[in-house]
Design brief:
- This protein has 194 residues and is α+β, with helices and mostly antiparallel strands.
- Helices cover 19% and strands 24% of the residues.
- The chain has three helices and eight strands; from the N terminus they run H-H-E-E-E-E-E-E-H-E-E.
- The longest helix is centred in the first third of the chain and has 22 residues, at 2-23.
Amino acid sequence: MRTVGRTALVLVPLLSAGLALSACTASDRPSTKTNTPTATAPATSEAQAEQLPEPSGPPCEVTQYEVTGEAGAKPTITVPTGCKPQDGLLVKDLTEGTGPEIKAGSNAELHYVLATFRDRKTREASWDNGAPFPLKNIGQAPVIQGWNEGLIGLKEGGRRLLVVPSDKGYPQGKGTIQPGETLIFVVDAVKVEG
């Protein structure tokens, strides 16, 4: 009887441990996958969206957008602070071109720099690729509406500032550009045809 008693004493704790382990479901166990997001660490784009403040203050004046750099070279955009983006598309010629003018249906080769308003970062530049961006059928081109509207009237050799509200840019966001973001372009018309 003694042997049976000892066996029973050893079996009871082992059976209890086995029942406790079998009661765990897959969702109770830690994942072995390394790419599973956690509830405490949101995805990078969500974290960035939370950190950027909404612009406030009076609407920015066109003169508050600073663009430096010689014509024919990559410009630098300084986004204003202490104001919020204006309503609607803002178009301002920084350098008047002397060549043909972009009209609806024109084709052009364009150099550009893109910055975003809220984080005041330069996002991309055709200058970095070493070649202008070719664009066909301006006015109906497969680009943002701010370009289709804002490039009309730009002459070859000219440089233009475009401040594009999100409804004429990427209202839902695109890549690292957040939804509702105002886009700031400086566009150089290298060649215009048609």
